[in-house]
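Intended use. Records like the one below are meant for learning the mapping from a protein sequence to its folded structure. Do not use them to infer anything beyond what is encoded.
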Amino acid sequence: MNNYKHLIDEKRKRITIVVGHYGSGKTEFAVNLALDSATAGKKTALVDLDIANVYFRSRERQQLLEENGVQVYSNMYHHEITADLPALASSIRKPLEDKLCKTIVDVGGDWSGARILNQFSKYFGNKEAEMLCVINANRPDTETVNGAYYHIRRIEDETGFRVNGLVNNTHMLMETWIEDIMKGYWLCSCLSQKLQIPLVFNCCMEEVLTRFKEKKTKLPDDLILYPIKLYMRPSWLDR
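Structure written out for the chain above:
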């Protein structure tokens, strides 16, 4: 598969804000992006601004992330027992101000969760920052171009920031197949044209990538797969 590569795009901005609908897999994408950045030798931080959701938060993988060179910034108490308290640490500003630090910002789902970005507007309204929206075409509110378009516009209206790129992360958890990836690709391609912004990533679980290779699936020339691991899925869900 000539158009497959492990994607670490040097054209990405220093600060990458990750937004998306509940269930889109935005946190999984953010964690993978942070780990890959650190693996590539970059000084990397992950800022967890998700105070809207009590499940699948990137700070739950703080030990894993820090063992692999990613500094994690979240609530002000630094203990899992207090992880649900909507109190952000002042230290969150540290990686945002560090010009040498690649910073991934994981934002709460939906436009209501994205409102928190307004508190840090001075860091995001510049040429160093970009906002990527994760789309799962298998979610009810983003399964059509118009639905996903409305979702993005609501996030932009709430935050005052523009979405600069799309991330196709269409999946059905452990039941994801090649058809899901392609479904999301076509939807995001149409959405990309409608919004006049690029489709930046097409996420693909490593297990699904193996199926692509086994079937020798021919992909569109502009479809570059970004292989991800499921770091956020608790093992007990598969028992």
